[in-house]
User: What shape does this take?
Amino acid sequence: MCKRWCFTCEMLGRARTGFVLLTATTLVFCYFLLRHTQVLHVQHKRWHSRERMRCVHSGTSNNTKLGTTMETSRGTGHCRTDCDIFVGERPPCITRNISSTGPWCHEMRRKRGNTKVKVNLDSRSMEMLEKLHGADLEPGGLFRPTECTSSQRVAVIVPFRERSLHLKIFLNNIHPFLKKQRVEYMILVVEQAPGSRLNRGMLRNIGVVEGEKLCKFDCYFFHDIDMIPLSERNLYTCGSKPRHHAAALARWNYALPYEHIFGGVVSFKTDLFKKINGYSNMYFGWGGEDDDLYNRVKHHNMDIERYPMKISGYGDLKHRKSEAQNARYSYLKTWKARVEVDGLNSLKYHRYLVEFRRLYTWIYVGIKEPEVLGSYLKK
Ligand code: BGC
Assistant: This one.
């Protein structure tokens, strides 16, 4: 009897010890699980804020310290994700509809008189340019004529990389030129971060996608940074057809090198540009993207138009010519197969920063060449 009793006691004792041990293990396990999740959470938060700081740093430090010289901001590390960072006061255009409250600007434009523009090549600091041209601009380089209503809202998209001197000369010339035309416009400078070869077609597509989020423009100009218009009669509004503006250049002896050339400065009504699916994203390096664009225009049964040669003159600023890419010839043979799948509707990029500066909106983006090309080539 005693033996059985002792056996029961022992079993109970063991069960109690087992229970205590199990509870203790569960508690310890829960404790570590909780701590681990917290640590992960804190680590994630830290990573996130560090990434955001990098974005802000790469965009604003140059603004305050270095007078908006963009090259100096690069190489500081970039976001791995889209940062969704907007720096500066937003331009007010997003809420406004164009409706005529006074005379239309195009009715007030001067048709005759001295229409020649003198290119100003003076080298000025960005602060100086901001003082000279910024007083009547809204944030992001938006201009709205006060004495009349512009029938179109125009975005001038400028692909950019490592050309800060040209940017200053461009801004110093283009602002007075466009203000005189009484066009409602905004300058969008789209800069590609280092890491891949420059892709100007893609930067222009990005300009449109980001531009549409800001203002709903009626008309897009795609403008090389080294082109300065020479005639006031070269109007910066869009016609019913895509227009090639930069047709008369000194480097071509003021004659077109070939009939369907379509680079330098071109303009499109927004719906037309969307209809052709924008530029191809395949052209990394110099050349080809404008020829491909021309093919797209023709493919959609559109014609291009030009002003007469004496109005289409541009001063082109000197620069070191980038290396031409030979792959363009093979891409130009296969353009048709890609029109629907390669363009505005298939952009892959990382938006690091949008900053509304005094004379322009700066859109800083990352493009990964293998990521972009890979997605088309494996199809
Ligand atoms: C290139 C174009 C360029 C043209 C004029 C062509 O070979 O493919 O991109 O606009 O030359 O320089």
Summary: The domain at 89-377 is CATH 3.90.550.10 (Spore Coat Polysaccharide Biosynthesis Protein SpsA; Chain A). The mean pLDDT is 84. The chain is about 40% helix and 15% strand.
